[in-house]
């Protein structure tokens, strides 16, 4: 009985970088999967030396190593959903896109990690171009933040209406099935408000605002939660709504660790009785 139940547990794959500080990247993704009772698997694309203050070193994995990890997981265990995070360069991005098609990976969530929430570009223009034209068209949903949406759409985002226009442009320009433009980088009442567009439905998704400086890993966590919900069988819109609620709760119990920006509290029920 127990073995049968265990064999039916959904599986999700994160294709992302390693964060030595444990706040974002693969570490955040796997914690998010675990919270949702999903078995998490991984394909590491790069290794970073980072903490709450920032990144001091990044080492890319060879594309062949990323491919081998994806194949090892999919050909034996299988996955019901996957998400991408930091892919770092055009060679890795192209390899991931090729394997997504070859391995017939469904329910792909693409977090186009190109620009940080503070506006710093993280990958070069060639990598951005490869991501836009090879990976985003394969995604069930793409989740750009404010600055990434500006690059993808060519428009400046200052208002909610700007976010709506960008979502529509990205959808049409890159043949994205669904675009979720995230408002985490917005100010005032627009902070934390996301815009959904699937070609027909244009929706505004909002939850309560959480006042905390400890927001490291929110983008990774949101995309991982969407993937986890998809792996469990939720429809995409429901998966996004529930993921936003999860991130909001995790932000409410963010970890005040280190000297800089701490991570969200992925296992927040365990933190309910602790001081932080």
UniProtKB/TrEMBL annotation:
Query: What processes does the entry annotate via GO biological process terms?
Result: thiamine biosynthetic process
Domain (Pyridoxamine kinase/Phosphomethylpyrimidine kinase): give its ranges. Answer: 19-264
Q: Which SUPFAM superfamilies match?
A: Ribokinase-like (SSF53613)
A Pfam family for this UniProt protein?
Answer: Phos_pyr_kin
GO MF term (any one): ATP binding
Q: Which GO terms describe its cellular component?
A: cytosol
Q: Which UniProt keywords apply?
A: ATP-binding, Kinase, Nucleotide-binding, Thiamine biosynthesis, Transferase
Task: Name the pathway.
Answer: Cofactor biosynthesis; thiamine diphosphate biosynthesis; 4-amino-2-methyl-5-diphosphomethylpyrimidine from 5-amino-1-(5-phospho-D-ribosyl)imidazole: step 3/3
Q: Which reaction does it catalyse?
A: 4-amino-5-hydroxymethyl-2-methylpyrimidine + ATP = 4-amino-2-methyl-5-(phosphooxymethyl)pyrimidine + ADP + H(+); 4-amino-2-methyl-5-(phosphooxymethyl)pyrimidine + ATP = 4-amino-2-methyl-5-(diphosphooxymethyl)pyrimidine + ADP
Question: Would the keyword ATP-binding turn up in this protein's UniProt record?
Answer: yes
NCBIfam families found in the cross-reference section:
HMP-P_kinase
**The protein's name in its UniProt record:** Bifunctional hydroxymethylpyrimidine kinase/phosphomethylpyrimidine kinase
Q: Which organism is it from?
A: Fischerella muscicola CCMEE 5323
Q: What is the lineage of its organism?
A: Bacteria, Bacillati, Cyanobacteriota, Cyanophyceae, Nostocales
Q: Which gene carries the instructions for this protein?
A: thiD
């Amino acid at each position: 009985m127990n073995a049968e139940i265990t064999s039916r547990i959904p599986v999700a794959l994160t294709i992302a970088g390693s964060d030595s500080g444990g706040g974002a990247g693969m570490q955040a993704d796997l914690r998010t999967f675990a919270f949702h009772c999903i078995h998490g698997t991984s394909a590491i694309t790069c290794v970073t030396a980072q903490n709450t203050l920032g990144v001091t070193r990044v080492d890319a994995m060879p594309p062949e190593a990323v491919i081998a990890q994806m194949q090892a997981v999919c050909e034996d265990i299988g996955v019901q959903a996957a998400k991408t995070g930091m892919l770092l360069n055009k060679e890795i991005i192209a390899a991931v896109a090729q394997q997504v098609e070859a391995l017939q990976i469904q329910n792909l969530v693409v977090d186009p990690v190109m620009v940080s929430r503070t506006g710093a570009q993280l990958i070069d223009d060639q990598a951005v171009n490869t991501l836009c034209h090879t990976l985003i068209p394969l995604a069930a949903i793409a989740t750009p933040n404010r600055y990434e949406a500006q690059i993808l759409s060519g428009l400046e985002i200052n208002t909610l209406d700007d976010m709506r226009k960008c979502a529509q442009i990205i959808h049409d320009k890159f043949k994205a099935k669904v675009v979720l433009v995230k408002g985490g980088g917005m100010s005032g009442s627009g902070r934390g408000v996301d815009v959904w567009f699937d070609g027909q439905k244009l929706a505004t998704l909002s939850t309560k605002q959480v006042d905390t400086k400890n927001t490291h890993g929110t983008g990774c966590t949101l995309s991982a939660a969407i993937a986890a919900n998809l792996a469990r069988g939720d429809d995409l819109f429901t998966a996004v709504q529930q993921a936003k609620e999860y991130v909001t709760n995790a932000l409410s119990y963010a970890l005040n660790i280190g000297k800089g920006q701490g991570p969200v509290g992925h296992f927040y029920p365990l933190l309910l009785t602790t001081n932080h």
